Amino acid sequence: MLRLSLVLVVVGFINVGTSHASDRPLTDSEKKIIANRYGERLKDPLSAQYRWHNLIKSASSTPNKMVYCFQVNAKNSYGAYVGFHTVLGAVTHRNGTVVEYSYEMGAQSNPIMNDSASEFCDISRYTFQ
């Protein structure tokens, strides 16, 4: 039931239709904005490893907000890396540049949330090998 509720909430946020014309890699400063903001959630943010994906503009994007997915491998309370997990969030952009990041779901201890984040990212063409 929880998973179905999450699906319905996020489907309203993500539209399956996409436009491939605006795909582009993130700049180093944009990666830093996302890593710093997401890092607030981590026990050891300086040791986190990231897999960045191109920024994809979708039909659900607004003039200043877009879905963004990446992967993170972070340390747990015991100091061990837990493996890469997909994170779903949103970036705010001005004049085509990312200026803010907000976390939505993923990379949590709850497997349902991890699976849901991966599914929504796949729908939005954010796929990781």
Name the descriptors.
129 residues, alpha+beta, four-stranded antiparallel β-sheet, globular, 25% strand, 4 strands
Entry summary:
With 129 residues, the protein is an alpha+beta fold. Helix content is 29%, strand content 25%.
Write the layout of secondary structure elements.
Blueprint: H1 2-13, H2 28-39, E1 49-51, E2 65-73, E3 85-94, E4 97-106, H3 111-123
Antiparallel strand pairs: 1-2, 2-3, 3-4
3D structure, described in words:
It is built from three helices and four strands. About 13% of the residues have low confidence. The chain has a four-stranded antiparallel β-sheet with strand order 1-2-3-4. By secondary structure, it is α+β, with helices and mostly antiparallel strands. The longest helix has 13 residues. The protein is 29% helix and 25% strand. Helix 1 runs parallel beside helix 3. Strand 3 and strand 4 form a beta hairpin.
Largest sheet: 4 strands, antiparallel
Topology as a string of helices (H) and strands (E): HHEEEEH
Question: Which term fits the overall shape?
Answer: globular
Number of strands: 4
Number of helical segments with 4 or more residues: 3
Distance between the termini: 29 Å
Mean pLDDT: 83
Rg estimate, integer Å: 14 Å
Give the fraction of residues assigned to helices.
25-40%
What proportion of the residues form beta strands (DSSP E)? 15-25%
Q: Please state how the strands of the largest beta sheet are arranged side by side.
A: 1-2-3-4
| Low confidence ranges | 4-9, 11-21
Supply the helix-strand structural class.
Answer: alpha+beta
